[in-house]
Amino acid sequence: MSAEPLLEVRDLKVSFRTEDGVIPAVDGVSLSLSEGETLGIVGESGSGKSVTMMSVMRLINDPNAHFEGEVVYKGRDLMKLTRDQIREIRGSGIAMIFQDPMTSLNPVYRIGWQIAEQIRAHEPISKQAAHARAIELLTAVGIPHAAQRVNDYPHQFSGGMRQRVMIAMAISCHPDILIADEPTTALDVTIQAQILSLIRKLRDDFGTAVVLITHDMGVVADLADRIAVMYAGRIVEQGDRRDVFYDAQHPYTWGLLGSIARLDRPKPRRLSTIPGLPPSLLRLPEGCAFGPRCAHRFDRCDERPALLAKVGEGHLDACHLDIERKKELRETTIHPELIEEAK
Amino acid sequence: MTGSAGPPAADLPADGSPSATSSAATATSPVTAAATSGANGEGMLDGELLLRAEHVTKYFPVRKGVLLQREVARVHAVDDVSIELRAGETLGLVGESGCGKSTLARCIARLYPLTSGTVVFEGQDISRLSRRKLRPVRRELQMVFQDPYASLNPRKRVGAIISNPLRIHRRGNRKQIKQRVAELLELVGLSPEHINRYPHEFSGGQRQRIGVARALALRPRLIIADEPVSALDVSIRAQVINLLDDLQDELHLTYIFIAHDLGVVRHVSDRIAVMYLGKIVEVSPGEELYKRPIHPYTEALLSAVPIPDPDLATERQQIVLEGDVPSPITPPSGCRFHPRCRYATEICTQQEPPLVEHGTGGHLAACHHPLDGGAAAE
Questions:
Q1: Residue B137: which of B115, B109, B104 has the closest Cα?
Q2: Contact B235 A255 (CB under 8 A)
Q3: Largest Cα–Cα separation, chain B
Q4: Do B313 and A221 touch (CB under 8 A)?
Q5: The complex's ipTM?
Q6: What residues are paired with B254 via a beta bridge?
Q7: Cα separations (Å) of B284 from B96, B223, B323, B337?
């Protein structure tokens, strides 16, 4: 990266004390985000992708949570700020939208009121002005008849429209960074396409940097500039979009790419899957956490692989396999249908 | 009841009439029905007609007022839908939320009473059967639900959840039921040791497997899976789809597979029906739909599926449908898709297009401006 990154996460560790032991939900994650850049964080449920970003926003208040590492935003370490200071940054500096827009909105207040309230928390403007801004914002995110709909309650909106309202709230104070945590997972594919194109438009219009958290590689394919793949609390691969899609280095990334039912390809006889389940964080295997599910595991995998740039600058991966060997193995995992067809 | 004295459930075919007789001992009339359906079932080969739904319509009343509960409007959830299902095939049912696909499935399973229309299952009209007479039918026709977090009782152990249908239908004694549960767990790829665990101890994908095991308990012939993988991670989705695929081969099941995503149903479906606002707008043999979509709505649905390839994703012209599905209380006039359709003209607002055959391969669509250039048989 050329310029100073806008947000930098350095060796973040988040663990939770529970009755059964300490759960290392995030184990040494480092990320950076430049101005106007879109970063996709991909991984299965429980891989720590949401916890990482919730920690950045300091949204985890659990007394049993333990944090280590630095989160530097515009030269300040967010982990060291007081509650009032972090409050100022939330919304106006970094904003976040969540997976389920119904639980994120208060069901007993009108949409307009909820948007106006949050604007007034950050800016000294009158109620009328805030209300007018709310209408503007709803129009900007594509809600028809915004002037009337602003007085509706959340239950009068459809799922896609609620997510638009969340986005309107998130951009109301012109944040530098928008964190979208599985923004389309609860939505239909058609509405997913709408929301993604809205996020793209906002990013292009306002130059907002976006962190897009998802479990679906398809979602980040044409939106993210860079992609980080997480597994069991660690980043296992990170790189430019093209690198991760066309030159994937980690067998877990192959698995993610291979398990999508693709419409642009001939139909495979069988979908390829990642066998097994993500490991319990309480009993992480020694060495590579993906080892037990990996088809290409060998002796060295008992030793934990470090996240290193082996194939090129900015393209990091944590896998012991030989680079040349990977090229052979990869195709059979990601594109079995193409190989099937060639036969 | 003679249930406990009846033959063991574990080695009895699901449609075997002896146990149907025993469990329906109190009601005499369904015995004949069950027996005939059993006879059909034994001899029925793949490809024979298993289910025919004709002009199925389901309206939900919208009521107002405290005392009188006046009906002020109707939600047209399913409007005059006819489909056929052959033994051994999988019908994919696709559409956005609110298009009526789940309602249609529930009408077919008779979880809802129909407003009008008939459902003929294994040669028997089940659309007007009473609860009691439905029981033997239910054995043959089971559902798997979308949300594995909501469809399993959190306070029951897995063993109790899966054995519940067996106990309700009196399939064997305790020991036999326990053995059958262990079998079922193994069948869906879980360990029989999990029998005493609670649902919260499982991941989403495993929970969906439990839901599948429960549906399979009575050895049904038809399984209606209502968005079985929509709530799951992509990587787990493929596992569950493969499981359903294997079970179909192994147990000769017939599926109705509901999804909002054309990518998901492609893999499992022999035929696909696309629904929009209570109507079927296109029916096609599986691959044909992807190669040659006819209805503009199908085209838009196909285009909405993300492609995990940056170059192709940037290259393609994605059709982003504006807005949401209109209210089914007052569906648009003419073609119901016309307000969101990019090809819509005058005629689309006035006349409802009929579902007609395009070509010869059983590819039907209801559109005034079909994408194949109007090769419709007049």
A1: B109
A2: yes
A3: 68
A4: yes
A5: 0.83
A6: B222
A7: 18, 20, 26, 19
**CATH assignment of the domain containing B128:** 3.40.50.300
Q: Is residue B359 within 8 angstroms of chain A, CB to CB?
A: no
Which residue bears the tokens 């044409």?
A222
Q: Give the pair of three-digit tokens for residue A47.
A: 């891989």
Contact B328, B277 (CB under 8 A): yes
Distance of CA A126 to the CA centre of its chain: 35
Question: Is B230 in CB contact (< 8 Å) with chain A?
Answer: no
Answer yes or no: is B320 within a domain.
Answer: no
Is a pLDDT exceeding 60 seen at residue B362? yes
Q: Sheet with B124-125: list strands edge to edge.
A: B70-86, B49-64, B116-121, B124-125
SS3 (DSSP) at B274: strand
| pLDDT band at A245; cut points 50, 70, 90 | very high
Is B310 contained in some domain?
no
Q: Greater confidence, B195 or A159?
A: B195
Q: Where are the beta strands (DSSP E) in chain B?
A: 49-64, 70-86, 90-94, 116-121, 124-125, 141-144, 222-226, 254-259, 271-276, 279-285, 356-357, 364-365
Q: How far apart are CA B72 and CA B63, in angstroms?
A: 6
Specify whether domain A7-224 bears CATH 3.40.50.300: yes
Interface probe, candidates A149, A152, A189, A243, chain B, greatest B C-beta count within 10 A: A189
The residue with greater pLDDT, A22 or A335, is: A22
Percent of chain A surpassing pLDDT 70? 97
pLDDT tens, position by position, B246-294: 999 999 999 999 998 888 888 889 999 999 999 999 999 988 999 999 9
- Residue whose structure tokens are 């893999």: B267
Distance CA B338, CA B352 (A): 10
Q: Is B97 on the interface with A (CB under 8 A)?
A: yes
pLDDT digits (tens, 9 = 90+) for B166-203: 999 988 899 999 999 999 999 998 988 889 999 998 88
Report the share of chain B in percent with pLDDT over 90: 52
Q: What is the mean pLDDT of the segment spanning B347-373?
A: 89
Domain assignment of residue B90, yes or no: yes
Say if residue B40's pLDDT is above 50.
no
Question: Is B182 part of a structural domain of the chain?
Answer: yes
- Who contacts A333 (Cβ-Cβ below 8 Å, separation ≥6)? A251, A254, A255, A257, A258, A272, A295
CB–CB of B318 and A277 under 8 A? Answer: no
List strand residue ranges (DSSP E) for chain A, in order. 7-18, 21-33, 38-42, 65-73, 76-77, 94-97, 177-181, 209-214, 226-231, 234-240, 308-312, 315-317
Q: In the prediction, which pLDDT does B46 show? A: 63
Structure tokens at B51: 């289910």
Ordered by start, the domain boundaries in chain A are 7-224, 230-342
Give me the amino acid identity at A121: A
Range of the domain at B265: 3-269
Tell me the residue length of chain B: 378
Mean residue pLDDT of chain B comes to 83
Across A57-91, b (16+ Cβ under 10 Å) vs e yields bbeeeeeebeeebebbbeeeebbebeeeebeebbb
Chain A residues in contact with chain B using a Cβ-Cβ cutoff of 8 Å = 44-45, 144, 158-161, 188-194, 197, 215-219, 221-222, 241-242, 245-246, 255-257, 259-264, 267-268, 270-275, 277-278
Report CA Rg, chain A.
21
Number of domains making up chain B: 1
Give the residue among B101, B96, B110 at the shortest CA–CA distance from B78: B101
Structure tokens given for B244: 């359903």
Of A193, A221, A270, the CB nearest to B308: A221
